[in-house]
Amino acid sequence: EELHSLHLIALDGKRLVGCVCFHPESNSKGRIFEMAVSEEYRGRGFGRQLLHTLERMLAQRGIHDVYLFAPPDAEKFYSLMGYQPQEDIIIKMGTELRMMKKNLSLS
To answer: What ranges make up the beta strands (E) of the chain?
Structure first.
């Protein structure tokens, strides 16, 4: 599984400030399963750039349907990035999450 996953990082000089991981589930669909930006770098565009870069790479590979599970405090960010809430909030390992999806061929 890990061999097919994509892992992108954001750097400020030589300092690692963010990352995003994606795992394909088919030739056209997959899941963003980890996205993080260092607290002091939030709000400075690193997360947007990571996600835009990942989405471009996925679209070039023919992957158009992307989903993730967002905590409530990240839903606004993903909504602004074009992700749509799909279901009620679920609780996974004590954390509230909502599935959000985006069709990259519509962006």
So the answer is: 6-12, 15-24, 29-37, 65-70, 84-85, 90-92, 95-103
